[in-house]
Specification:
This protein is mostly helical. It contains two helices and no strands. The protein has one domain: F1FO ATP Synthase, CATH 1.20.20.10. Helices cover 88% and strands 0% of the residues.
Amino acid sequence: MEMLNSAAAGAGLIIIGAGIGIGKIGAAAVESMARQPEKAGDIRGAMIVAAALIEGAAFFGLIVCIAKMPSG
């Protein structure tokens, strides 16, 4: 039971961390686009790539936590 709790807590922390990270990237990108509208396309592309990398790392961590859960 202890292993299940720690795996679930780890998965929750991973998802919360990824959500905060993607939120900060989005906020910074919107602020940057407001300051330099002519660079909005470049900023948007960089934001999407960074968010995808964070999401990929979060999925990897989530899979590791799920794999550590005891079966049955």
